[in-house]
Design goal:
Order of helices and strands: EEHEHHHHHHEEH
CATH superfamily: Glutaredoxin
Distance between the termini: 17 Å
Number of helices: 8
Number of domains: 1
Largest sheet: 5 strands, mixed
Strand content: 5-15%
Radius of gyration: 17 Å
């Protein structure tokens, strides 16, 4: 599947030119996405990475799936996109940190915070992953522009991810695409056994 160059860090496993593509749509404040993220890290990344069974055959792309019924979802995704620019190699480690701390950004805990306070809290979380010296650069990308409705520096990247989801009819997270087609059988409850069986059937190179 297509991916604009600025979002190359969203390829979290496998080689860029691998012929098979696994698109995984996740929302940082979705519990089921968090469950799948842990499996991606422990099962899929080793399989697709150097020396793995499917090294050079499959790549995994994380597609950011903002679910607007959760008020803080947009802010978590903005921060991940900012980290992808400031410290590309830390995008996935920071994503895992977001999933591990997602309850802090659920509807009720976030309900008494302003957008600026939420962005500040997220930048602090990023500092624990990418280093405090890089936090100012993240904060700068998350600072509202001078125009009243201009968004922040990563708004265009966020628009890309949302438009990509919409044109492909993605409604919920997690959703998984195999070579561009929805793989409805994939479940967030899958473990190593289920993924091994799925890949054995799907990989043809």
């Amino acid at each position: 599947m297509a991916l604009q160059p600025s979002l190359r860090p969203l390829i979290i496993a496998g080689r860029y030119d691998a012929p098979h593509t696994l698109d995984i749509f996740l929302d940082y404040v979705c519990p089921f996405s968090a469950k799948l993220a842990l499996v991606i890290d422990s099962v899929l990344k080793p399989l697709f990475g150097p020396g793995g069974q499917y090294d050079g055959k499959v790549k995994a792309i994380i597609r950011l799936q903002v679910q607007p019924w959760h008020g803080s979802s947009i802010f978590t995704h903005e921060t991940a996109l900012a980290v992808a620019r400031v410290a590309p190699e830390q995008f996935w480690p920071f994503s895992l940190a977001l999933f591990k701390h997602q309850t802090e950004f659920f509807d009720i805990p976030a309900s008494t915070l302003t957008p600026i306070q939420i962005r500040g809290k997220l930048a602090d979380l990023a500092g624990g992953v990418i280093g405090q010296d890089k936090v100012p650069a993240v904060q700068d990308l998350l600072t509202l522009k001078s125009t009243p409705n201009g968004g922040v520096e990563v708004t265009d990247d966020l628009k890309y991810t949302i438009k990509f989801s919409r044109q492909n009819g993605i409604h919920v997270s997690p959703t998984v695409l195999w070579d561009g087609i929805v793989a409805g059988e994939v479940s967030s409850s899958w473990g190593q056994k289920e993924w091994a069986e799925f890949l054995a059937k799907k990989v043809t190179v």
